[in-house]
Amino acid sequence: MNRVYETERLRLVVVDSTYASKILKFYLENESFLMRWEQIKQPDFYTINHQRRILNLEEQFFMKGQMVRFWIFKKEDETNDEPIGSVSLTNIIRGVFQSCFLGYKLGERFTGAGYMTEAISKVMEVAFDEMELHRIEANIMPDNMKSMNVVKRLGFENEGLARKYLKINGKWEDHYHMVKLNEYMI
Fold first, then answer.
1. How far apart are CA 24 and CA 48, in angstroms?
2. Contact 52/59 with Cβ under 8 angstroms?
3. Cα(23)–Cα(105) distance, rounded to whole angstroms?
4. How far is CA 66 from the centre of its chain?
5. 149 pLDDT band (50/70/90 cuts)?
6. Distance of CA 38 to CAs 13, 19, 159, 170, 183, Å?
7. I want to staple 20 with a disulfide (CB 3.0 to 4.6 A). Which of 52, 71, 110, 155 is the partner?
8. Under a CB-based contact definition with an 8 Å cutoff, are residues 156 and 138 in contact?
9. How many helices (H) and strands (E) does the chain have?
10. Contact 134, 146 (CB under 8 A)
11. pLDDT band of 186, cuts 50, 70, 90
12. Quick one: which H or E segment has residue 148?
């Protein structure tokens, strides 16, 4: 699998710890916006050292084929200075399952322009064609309509409601279990 993929408007990059300050800046700029959809972050999360640790761990998981996080950059940002979001495939399980979880986030000022649909579409292509996964699962809170609309546009189907599925912003939240199957592996 490559570390860089491009779409019409975006560059998707598996970054290393040298990007820690850029990733930290993204999180600091979007802290209050992302809070509604994510777990509570400990104060040290918003430090350069913590971001380096996370990126080093993600690199290890990437090398083992257990996860991949693509940070999203606009193509016009030729030096990859400003990440606008990320798309990740986590808990990659091989064997008879060939499945993973999809996670994604976008900076507040970049929402509504179709960037996430474009990025996830490319990541799905990588997951199905290169990684030969059979199933991608995304879990979305019922009131996150923008997120729900993105995966529906990409052909994900609702397999039901998981009650009190994830602890988001300090509260156990219900999530719709959205799934996309690899049409070539059915």
1. 6
2. no
3. 12
4. 14
5. very high
6. 22, 22, 22, 9, 31
7. 52
8. yes
9. 5, 8
10. no
11. low
12. helix 145-153
- What would the two tokens of residue 160 be? 């039901």
Measured between alpha carbons, how far apart are the two ends of the chain, in Å?
Answer: 23
Instruction: Give the separation between CA 51 and CA 19, rounded to whole angstroms.
Output: 9
- Cβ atoms of 11 and 73 within 8 Å: the answer is yes
> How buried is residue 112: exposed, middle or buried, by Cβ count under 10 Å (0-12/13-18/19+)?
exposed
Would you say residue 185 has pLDDT above 90? Answer: no
Tokens of 41: 């972050």
Closest residue by Cα to residue 99 from 111, 91, 107: 91
The amino acid that residue 65 corresponds to is: G
Q: Compute the 3-state secondary structure of the chain and give helix, strand, coil in percent, each to the nearest 5.
A: 35, 30, 30
Residue type, 165: Y
Continuous segment of H or E residues that includes residue 164: strand 157-168
pLDDT tens-digit readout, 37-62: 999 999 999 999 999 999 999 999 99
pLDDT digits (tens, 9 = 90+) for 153-167: 999 999 999 999 999
Name the amino acid, one letter, at 22: K
Question: Model-level pTM?
Answer: 0.95
Residue 184's pLDDT is what?
75
Q: How far apart are CA 3 and CA 97, in angstroms?
A: 24
